[in-house]
Amino acid sequence: MEYTYICKSCGHATLIDEKALLSSRQLICQRCLRVSGVSAAANASNRRDSSLSPDQARAAYYHDGAPAVLVVGGAGTGKTKVLTERVLFLHKEAHVPVESIAVLTFSRRAATELNRRLKAGGMRAVRVPVLWSSPGEFRHRRPSNIPPNTLFAGSFYSFCLNLMKDFCGCYENSAWYPETEDYFLDIDELNLIDRDDQCAILGKLRGELGISGKTLSSLVPEAEELRCIFTRISNSMIDVEEYYRRRPAASPETQEYVKTLAGMYAAYKRKHGEMDMDDLLAITARALKISAFFREAFRKQFLHVLVDEVQDATPVEWSILQSVCPTVRLFCTGNDAQSICSFDGADFNVIRDFGAMFPGAITLKLTENFRSTQEILELSNALLKESELAYETPVTSHRGESGHKPELRTFPTEQEEADFVLESVRGKLAEGVPPGEITLLFRSAGQAQVMEQALRAAGIPYRFLGGATFLQRPHVKDVFSVLDITNDFRNKPAWRRILALYPKLDPRTVSSFIRNIPSNEATEKKANSYDVERDARMEVFNMVYRFLPNLSSFLFNCPSSFFGSDSQMKKIVEFFNQTGLLKKKYDDWAERKNDLRTLIHVADRDRYYEPASRGGFEIRERFDKEFKLDSDAIVQEYDRDAAKKLTLATVHSAKGIESDYCYLFRVQDGVFPQGKAASPEAIEEERRVLYVAMTRARKQLVLTQTAGGSSIFLTQAMKQKMDAGQSERNDNNGKQSNVR
Q1: Fewest CB atoms within 10 Å of the CB: 445, 634, 650, 729?
Q2: Measured between alpha carbons, how far apart are the two ends of the chain, in Å?
Q3: pTM of the model
Q4: Is pLDDT of 556 > 90?
């Protein structure tokens, strides 16, 4: 057996015979004659995955001392497979303790898939708690109910949330409250707010600017736009001035109003003890930068950090990685052609500057696609070749040619488009194609409405990835507001939502109550804070008791146990069922009620986030924060019938998804690319979005257009790579032939 050795000094590839390697224990570059020692076990080849290609094996088993490794490969080249095998290699051959390995992804769904693959390899990915006693003392203890061979695998957000809990002694309070440095930040004292909460707060603050309605609407962005602006500012590690230098506002006054609102928003969060998801990243990056003790503690805990889909990393995430490298070894996988998250602050060019960011880094390439047929691959590669940028793309398809070109279908209306896809899907299901192998892709969730109506009318079950999250469903939000109040009785947005379920309440009573809820600052500044906290909680529930005694009694006595037959989530749902509050509010209650059943099961199933011995309150709070990070992925993990449903998804939610048959809707100007994409950079990102969508298909890809639409991306050369004959099969009545 031969191995490929990539020289760290000159990058030359040298073939090494296994027997010679084991006898000499040396690697010698044939170009520059650099000599490196090796420490692979004698039976290493027996423990390796023989299904890896030479390029994949070269990346997964790289062991030549570079402080950072970047594995670049197009869609379908097996980057996640390499990452999984890399973890197994580090533990089984390099003898790295699993608790010293962290694997970071950009979604919980990706982490779940990675966990599944690691489990198949004999490992399990979970969070490993770390205990701190005093500054300068580091202790690690594995709880008795967590099995051996466990490591952290999760999203950047989840990783930072866990760091804030497990390394709490390292988060100096100045990372959150710049004016104070005398005590540490306690994540348990902070509420994690989701995007809906952010918009509600920003809408309230926007109304407090004290300007007229006409001026407000013309000069101040709406709450959702403000949220997006603040996310990009935080993730890009810039200020408002720099943001508008890059994207000039229509009026200078807009910049001043946004700057004022940024200060008001930060002050509001501090006053009420709240943080958003962007804060998880920003505070962690700031704490690592200002605390040498934190950096040292991090390096003692983690020896290797592996990052999947690194092209989507934002500057604040790159800052976290740079703070701990090179002492912590970095292993990243990514592809510049799949960088589609600039709306979150991700910088397309950073992955191309990997070597400059991490001196001594090495780049390895994967050039063979194992997912799609050659016909699909030729179309997607042609899309990138039309760009002026030189993308890293796979050259060949491992599957080879299938004899079926991708199809381009045109329709007069969206309804006829949906009718054709419905009949085509029915045909495939009748032929025995599993529903889980059929995916319908849309640029945005709103464009799927006609198709969803057709599927519902036909009784075909499906799941939808993208658009509004599970937590954003109003009835789920109502239930979660009760959980938020049991976690923190001062949570004003949660109180407003719960009290809105009682329409007969006098608005003046509600306003007076909300106004009199004490803030975090009010209790923290007083002596005997525990007694003050207890008395303040009692006073809040006494105020509620005066006008809603049943609600007050339930919330005050809500069980602390989060699991089992007497679980808190189950009691909350039972309360709403008994009072009928949600049934009165929502007409389609019978359908919505199923979501609450799902919520009970998901909450009970999520117990592995904390050992049971840590106590119900911490478990409840852990679930609350984790669920707000990615509610959809948690619910999808619970969905045991996913393979029996079609998948409908927005393109941005489809990364990591692949299926035999894909329908890509409305590949035409205004959609691909979007109408608001005006700059060359934005157009180029739209090209990458389309590339990601095309490369989800394994066997068959169907592109659609409506109302005579066309796309600047579909050049004549690309159309020649599609089945043009089938795309023209419209008769005079607009009917479509049923081709499967």
Answers
A1: 729
A2: 45
A3: 0.80
A4: no
